[in-house]
Write a structure and sequence with these properties.
Strand order of the largest sheet: 6-7-8-3-9-10
Bound molecules: adenosine-5'-triphosphate, magnesium ion
Distance between the termini: 50 Å
CATH topology: Rossmann fold
Number of domains: 1
């Protein structure tokens, strides 16, 4: 057992549903994450808030190793994602197959949808289950159809992404994420590229997912949504978590000046 396997605090990462431990990330000389630790219990929604540039997207990307943290580890369901020893940089993924599977368990929904432009909506949703999970084409299609129905765009299954509105594309992206039967859904500002009148339809789908007990980590500037659905709100400031707590605690009585300032800038 090397030192990274030792639990740094009282709770052991092996027992957590998702555990992020002491993540550090620099881009060149810029220290973006300065030792961030976070836990997401099963069935809970954890929201990350903070000013632009505070490291929210980088943290989400480190969780599914789209960005490799310089130090620190991520544990999913008691299993540490395989990264090389941080004392011998550059750090790299040591087991690509394990990470592919882990990413499938950590479906991410991006601000810019990231649908495949040359595939139909149905194909966008069936691709992952067929090629990553090994599901048969017929089963994948049946499941995808049900998911598209759930997010309210069953009638768009044979269209291409460019033929859908932004809100419909984002709902397709959520259906695609759900098709992978993820343990955890990661959302990075899923509504911020949308016209205001389309935001509500995406937030409604996300609210339903929270209500059915999905484990979610959400970066959003929609503060009323964050306040309503989160079990825990985490405030990131200059790459550190400086406050975390229940939504009432964070929104009504922020303890730090940085958090107070941030909230007053985003809440009218
Ligand atoms: N690949 C990269 N190369 C260099 N710098 C990067 C890279 N990715 C992020 N950064 C820098 O890291 C800092 C944090 O970026 P990040 O995208 O995590 O912020 P954020 O909190 O998500 O901000 P926003 O609310 O604007 O999305 C920024 O200063 C950004 O310019
Ligand atoms: Mg961001």
């Amino acid at each position: 057992m090397d030192s990274r396997d030792a639990p740094p605090s009282s709770a052991s990462p092996e027992q957590a549903y998702l555990s992020v431990r002491r993540i550090k990330k620099k881009f060149g000389d810029l220290a973006v994450l300065n030792g961030v630790s976070l836990e997401a219990p099963e069935h809970e929604v954890v929201s990350l808030i903070g000013a632009s540039g505070s490291g929210k997207s980088t943290l989400l990307r480190c969780i599914n190793l789209l960005t490799i943290p310089d130090e620190g580890d991520v544990w999913i369901d008691g299993v540490r994602l395989p990264l090389s020893d941080p004392s011998r940089p550059p750090r790299r993924i040591t087991d690509k197959k394990a990470v592919r599977l882990a990413r499938a368990r950590l479906a991410m929904v991006f601000q810019s949808f990231n649908l495949w432009a040359h595939r139909t909506i149905l194909e966008n949703v069936t691709e992952g289950p067929i090629h990553v999970l090994g599901v048969s084409a017929a089963e994948a299609r049946e499941k995808a159809t049900a998911l598209l129905d759930r997010v309210g765009i069953a009638d768009k299954r044979d269209f291409y992404p460019a033929q859908l509105s932004g809100g419909q594309q984002q709902r397709a992206a959520i259906a695609r994420a759900l098709a992978m039967e993820p343990k955890i859904l990661l959302f990075d500002e899923p509504t911020s590229a949308l016209d205001p009148e389309l935001v509500g339809e995406v937030l409604k789908v996300m609210r339903d997912l929270a209500d059915e007990g999905r484990t979610m980590i959400v970066v959003s500037h929609e503060m009323s949504f964050v306040r309503d659905v989160s079990n825990k709100v985490v405030f990131l400031h200059q790459g550190c978590i400086v406050e975390e707590g229940g939504p009432a605690e964070i929104f009504q009585s922020p303890k730090t000046e940085a958090c107070r300032k941030f909230l007053s800038s985003v809440i009218q």
